[in-house]
Amino acid sequence: MSDDEEEIILSELSDDDLVAQMMDDLYDGLKEEIEEATNILLERGWTPYDILTKSLVEGMRIVGDDFRDGILFVPEVLLAANAMKAGMTILRPLLAETGAPKLGIMVTGTVKGDIHDIGKNLVGMMMEGAGFDVYDLGINTDVDEFMEAIEKYKPDILGMSALLTTTMPYMKVVIDELKTRGIRDNYIVLVGGAPLNEEFGEAIGADAYCKDAAIAVETAKELITRRHNQIAH
Asked: Which of 79, 112, 192, 196 sits a CA distance of 20 to 30 A from 158?
């Protein structure tokens, strides 16, 4: 760092400037700065929910948009998501205490036979950033594991990921099991992964195919809102 480039002291920034700086730091994947700024805002009396939505979620939305538009790539998004996670680690227990509004619960996993998880992890982090509780079952997840998680966590959304054409059909095994149990309509099923497309999603009976993490978040929000409206009527 050169002499003429002064180091920014986060605690000296006004609230607005600090939030703007957090968005920049999130974009650059600066984990420690995010932790520090999160704690500063808490000390200043910000609610955990406001810190989450106004700085972290908003910052992650910009990251998501730039990822979708090809300005950022997976490694940078993972760094940003990691920085976001550091802030979330501080806020999560506090959010639980204050009963902040949650958009919903999601169970996610890479299907049996498949060990790819970068895309799935990205979706999980961005869904958490958007206000969902995410339970990630990891890789190589079989139908029984999905069913156990559904009973345990009672999610709104089930997300499945595959990167191999050979493991894609397993998504249908899981959806068929939901149908067999008569509970298919209780869940929003989202599928994703490089070899998939919309036609495949429709063919296996998923609610939507999501091309990337940003679209997954948009789709999830939209379908949750639609579902709440239907229940309300």
From this structure: 79
